[in-house]
Design a protein that fits this description.
Number of strands of chain A: 0
Oligomer: heterodimer
Number of helices of chain A: 3
Strand content of chain B: 25-35%
Distance between the termini of chain B: 64 Å
Helix content of chain B: 25-40%
Strand content of chain A: under 5%
Strand order of the largest sheet of chain B: 3-2-1-7-19
Structural class of chain B: alpha/beta
Structural class of chain A: mainly alpha
Shape of chain B: globular
Radius of gyration of chain B: 23 Å
Number of strands of chain B: 26
Order of helices and strands of chain A: HHH
Largest sheet of chain A: none
Largest interface: A-B, 41 and 46 residues
Shape of chain A: extended
Helix content of chain A: 55-70%
Radius of gyration of chain A: 18 Å
Distance between the termini of chain A: 54 Å
Number of helices of chain B: 12
Chain lengths: ~80, ~450
C-alpha cells in the first residue's frame, strides 16, 4: 500500500475513534470501546494529539499535498452577484 | 468522427456512461461488459423487496435488455474483462478474446471490505449486490428465524429494518459506538436505534466480529461479546473501490483507494475515463478527495465520463454529498459534515441545533424533525448538516447541499422564507430555527 494511502486509512480511522469519544462525552452517550495495543497507542496517544495541536490551515495543506483527484483540475463555477433580473 | 468505446461495468455508472457515449453521437459504438446477468435495475431497492415494502424484484428493473438493443448499446452479460492493454488500446474478455477500443470507461464499482475473520467461505453469508442473487436469498429468508447484520452501515441500516419487518430475530454487530458510526452523530441516530429496539432488534455496538461459525453453512457468529446464533448473516461492511483492473493497467489510484480523475473524469491514461464507486472525487468545501457516494452520483458521473469518452466535453463538479435513508421508522440524512466528522478532521465549526415539526402541530401525521447545522466560524457559511425525523429529510438534505454549494450563511438560513401550509409545512421551519440557535450561541459568547 502506498504511504499516502496507508496514512489516510489509519489516520481516518483513529481520528474518527477519537472524535466519536469526544462527541459521545458531549452528548452523554457511550463512546467507542477502549482500543488496545501498540498501534492504537501510537495513533490515539501520539498522532491524534499532535494532529489536533496543529492549526487547521497546516493540516489542510498537508492533506491537499497528498496525491489524488484534488490535484487535477476541478472548476468551481462563478456565481454572478445581484438580482437575477 | 465516431468512436468505439468499451465500458467495463454495468451498474449505475456503466449504464450512465453507455448512454452518455450515444448521446454525443448516435454513430458512436459502445459495448458494455458486465459480470452479472442483468443491467438497468436499482440495487438500492433490494432491501425494500426483502422487507416486503415492494412486492417484487421485477419492479426494480428500469429498462429492458431490448431497450438497450434498440438504442444501439451492445451489452455483454455474464462476461468478464480480465485485463486492459493500454498501449494497444484493447481489453481481454473471457470467452471473446481481444477487443479494441478508442476510448475506455472503467465503471467497476465496489467490493465489500473483507471482514478478515475465519469462516468467510461458509454458505449463508449474504453480500447484497446482485438482483438475481437477491431473489434466491429472498426465498431463503422465508425459513430464517435468526439473522445477524454485520455493521450498521447505510446498507446495513436498510437490511436491519428489512429483516425486522419480516419478523426475523435480528442482531446487529458493529464495532462503532452507534449506527452509521462513520458518518452520523449519536443524537441523530438515537431515534433510529430506539425504533429498532421497539421492533425487537438487538443492537451490539462496540462489538467486533471475530469469526463466522459453522461447518459448511453458517450457524452463528463469534463476537468480542460472545457468540450469537444465526441462520443467515448479512455482511454490510464498508464499500471499497474495485480497482483491480485499473491498477494492473497502471491507472493512478488515490489515497481513498479510488481511481484519480479530473473534472472531465479522465484518468491518468489518455483515452481512459472512470466513474462511480471505483473513483475518488473532490469534496467541494475542503477540496479533499472522497470515494463511495450514492447511485445518483454514480449515474451522473457515468453520463459525464461516457459523454467525454464519446467526444463530448462535459465537466463534473465537486460534490457536497446530500445523503438520506429510511432507517426503522425514521428518516435520517445530512450534507457533507456532521459533528463527528468535522471533529475528526479538526474542521473549525459552529453548531446550531433545533427540534421542530414537519407540519402544523394540529395536523394528522405531524412528526418531529431534528436539524443540526454546521457553519464556518469566520464566514458563517454553511458547511454541513445532519437531520432525523419522520418525514421531509430528503428535501431538506437536497436544499442544504445546494446551500453549502453556493455559499449560503447561517444568517441567510435564520431569515429564510418557508412554505407554511398545515398539511405540508410548519409555521417555523426547523432549518431556520437551527440557524437562529447557532446565531444566538454566537451572540451569547
Amino acid at each position: 500500500m502506498a504511504f499516502s494511502r496507508w496514512l489516510r486509512v489509519n489516520s481516518e480511522h483513529y481520528l474518527t475513534v477519537a472524535a466519536q469519544a469526544r462527541v459521545a462525552r458531549r452528548h452523554g452517550v457511550t463512546g467507542p470501546a477502549a482500543a488496545r495495543g501498540a498501534k492504537a497507542f501510537f495513533w490515539l496517544r501520539i498522532f491524534v494529539p499532535v494532529y489536533r495541536l496543529l492549526p487547521w490551515k497546516l493540516r489542510h495543506a498537508v492533506m491537499r499535498s497528498m496525491p489524488g483527484s484534488h490535484r487535477r483540475q476541478w472548476t468551481y463555477p462563478d456565481r454572478p452577484a445581484g438580482p437575477a433580473i | 468522427m465516431s468512436r468505439r468505446t468499451v465500458v467495463i461495468g454495468g451498474g449505475s455508472a456503466g449504464t450512465g456512461a453507455a448512454g452518455g457515449v450515444k448521446a454525443v453521437d448516435k454513430a458512436n459504438e459502445v459495448t458494455v461488459y458486465t459480470d452479472f446477468e442483468d443491467i438497468a435495475y436499482s440495487p438500492c431497492g433490494i432491501p425494500f423487496v426483502h422487507g416486503k415494502e415492494i412486492d417484487s424484484f421485477q419492479t426494480l428493473f428500469l429498462a429492458t435488455k431490448e431497450d438497450y438493443v434498440r438504442v444501439g448499446i451492445d451489452i455483454h452479460y455474464n462476461t468478464t474483462v480480465t485485463s486492459i492493454d493500454v498501449p494497444n488500446h484493447t481489453v481481454e474478455v473471457e470467452g471473446e478474446g481481444t477487443v479494441p477500443w478508442d476510448t475506455l470507461v472503467i465503471a467497476t464499482g465496489f467490493k465489500y471490505a473483507d471482514p478478515g475473520v475465519p469462516g468467510a467461505d461458509l454458505d449463508g453469508l449474504y453480500y447484497v449486490k446482485n438482483i438475481r442473487a437477491a431473489e434466491r436469498w429472498d426465498a431463503r429468508l422465508d425459513g430464517v428465524k435468526q439473522a445477524v447484520v454485520v455493521e450498521a452501515s447505510p446498507l446495513g441500516v436498510e437490511m436491519i429494518t428489512a429483516l425486522a419487518h419480516r419478523g426475523i430475530e435480528t442482531h446487529v454487530v458493529d464495532p462503532n459506538p452507534w449506527a452509521l458510526g462513520e458518518q452520523a452523530d449519536p443524537d441523530i441516530v438515537a431515534p433510529v436505534e430506539q425504533a429498532w429496539r421497539d421492533m425487537g432488534v438487538h443492537l451490539h455496538f462496540n462489538t467486533r466480529l471475530e469469526a463466522f461459525l459453522g461447518s459448511g453453512t453458517v450457524t452463528g457468529v463469534r463476537t468480542s461479546a460472545g457468540d450469537l446464533p444465526a441462520e443467515l448473516v448479512v455482511v454490510a461492511t464498508h464499500k471499497r473501490p474495485e480497482t483491480t483492473l485499473a491498477k494492473a493497467a497502471g491507472v493512478k489510484i488515490g489515497t481513498t483507494g479510488g481511481i484519480v480523475v479530473g473534472e472531465d473524469l479522465s484518468t491518468s491514461i489518455p483515452g481512459v475515463y472512470a466513474a462511480g464507486d471505483c473513483i475518488e472525487v473532490v469534496q467541494g468545501s475542503t477540496s479533499i478527495p472522497l470515494q463511495g457516494l450514492t447511485g445518483s452520483h454514480a449515474y451522473a458521473q457515468g453520463k459525464v465520463a461516457g459523454s467525454n469518452a464519446g467526444g463530448g466535453s462535459r465537466k463534473y463538479q465537486p460534490v457536497y454529498v446530500p445523503w438520506g435513508m429510511l432507517a426503522a421508522t425514521q428518516m435520517v440524512g445530512g450534507v457533507s459534515f456532521g459533528e463527528t466528522l468535522a471533529e475528526s478532521l479538526g474542521i473549525p465549526h459552529i453548531l446550531g441545533v433545533a427540534d421542530g415539526i414537519s407540519r402544523a402541530r394540529y395536523y394528522p401525521g405531524v412528526t418531529k424533525i431534528r436539524v443540526k447545522l454546521l457553519a464556518d466560524p469566520a464566514t458563517h457559511r454553511l458547511i454541513g448538516a445532519q437531520m432525523v425525523g419522520g418525514e421531509g429529510i430528503k428535501e431538506r438534505a437536497d436544499f442544504l447541499a445546494m446551500a453549502v454549494r453556493v455559499g449560503i450563511t447561517i444568517e441567510d438560513l435564520a431569515t429564510m422564507e418557508n412554505v407554511y401550509s398545515p398539511a405540508i409545512g410548519a409555521l417555523n421551519e426547523p432549518i431556520s430555527l437551527a440557524a437562529q440557535n447557532a446565531l444566538a450561541r454566537l451572540q451569547a459568547k
